[in-house]
Write a structure and sequence with these properties.
This protein is an alpha/beta fold. Helices cover 30% and strands 27% of the residues. It has one domain (3-272): Rossmann fold, CATH 3.40.50. α2 crosses α9. The two termini are 36 Å apart.
Length: 274
């Protein structure tokens, strides 16, 4: 898909005035004359300033882990669920808080989907745009998604915050939200190793699920759990890329005994409440 088709098909809205943005030359412009340049990598920054800063090394470690297939079973399960609940002729997928774009970039590679992905981090979006040519990548704010009302068939929200007011605004009447949250066993090998440095308690998944059910009609819950062997290099990349260890001195951890990693996730499918 060409850059022009990808960005125009996304039907992006101007963050200043709310009018439709169209690609003209190397920029997106609206009828009011607001202009947003397309970067050399092919993404567009629709946030004032540069967006939030996260170290590029964080996302490179994520890509390292993803490229070795650790999340492939999760990706396969997600695609099966989306296929079950989305029946549109030319469906629209939005990856909210996309990071470096693994999920949007690898779902429905040969399908008829229009795929848009956004994150508040310019570094993450830059990596995604460099690799996945069938996704429109933008730097944008979760609380002000630059898409029209009722324009999205499926929203992905994978291990990231959610704004259900905005989600409900942009999804279609029969659209869905697929939210992935960590289970109690998620990366348990690393969390056990770092327990003396962890200041917070266990992840409160019940609170997250209750909040989801408060705002969405939860139509399905699936849990996927598996454990895979890791090399020391892979274990180090996991430790460097997970927000669960963001307050931990990862370089001080003795990862010599970590020979496997557990992926434990719960997938929630929600529909807009009537």
């Amino acid at each position: 898909m060409s850059e022009k088709n990808r960005l125009n098909d996304a039907k992006l809205l101007c963050p200043v005035c709310g009018k439709r943005l169209l690609l003209e030359g190397g920029s997106l412009r609206c009828m009011e004359g607001h202009c947003f340049d397309v970067s050399r990598q092919g993404y567009v920054n629709l946030l004032p300033g540069r967006g939030a800063f996260y170290p590029m090394e964080l996302f490179r470690n994520r890509r390292f882990v993803f490229d070795r297939g650790f999340y492939a079973p999760l990706l396969e399960k997600m695609q099966l669920l989306i296929e079950r609940y989305v029946k549109a002729e030319k469906p629209v997928l939005l990856d909210a808080g996309c990071g470096e774009g693994y999920y949007a970039g690898n779902l429905f590679k040969n399908g008829n989907w229009i795929k848009t992905a956004f994150d508040i981090s310019r570094e993450a979006v830059q990596l995604g745009a460099q690799r996945y040519e069938d996704v429109a990548f933008i730097v944008a704010d979760l609380k002000r998604i630059p898409l029209p009302d009722h324009s999205v068939d499926c929203i992905l929200d994978v291990l990231t915050p959610a704004d259900y007011t905005e989600f409900s605004r942009v999804i279609k009447k029969n659209g869905c939200v697929l939210k992935a949250i960590p289970g109690e066993g998620y990366l348990k090998e690393l969390r056990t190793l770092a327990k003396d440095q962890l200041r917070s308690g266990p992840y409160e998944s019940d609170r997250v699920k209750d909040y989801f059910a408060l705002h969405m009609q939860c139509v399905r819950r699936d849990r996927i759990t598996y454990t895979l062997p890791v090399t020391q290099e892979e274990a180090r990349a996991f430790a460097r890329m997970t927000p669960m260890l963001q307050r931990v001195d990862v370089e001080a951890l003795d990862l010599g005994g970590v020979t496997e990693i557990t992926i434990d996730m719960e997938l929630l499918v929600g529909k807009k409440k009537r």
